[in-house]
Amino acid sequence: METSVPRQRDPSESALVDMLMLEAPIGLALFGSDSRFRWVNAALTRLDGRAGADPSSYPGRRPADVWPPEIATRAELALLGRLASVPL
Question: Is residue 43 assigned to a domain?
Answer without folding.
Answer: yes
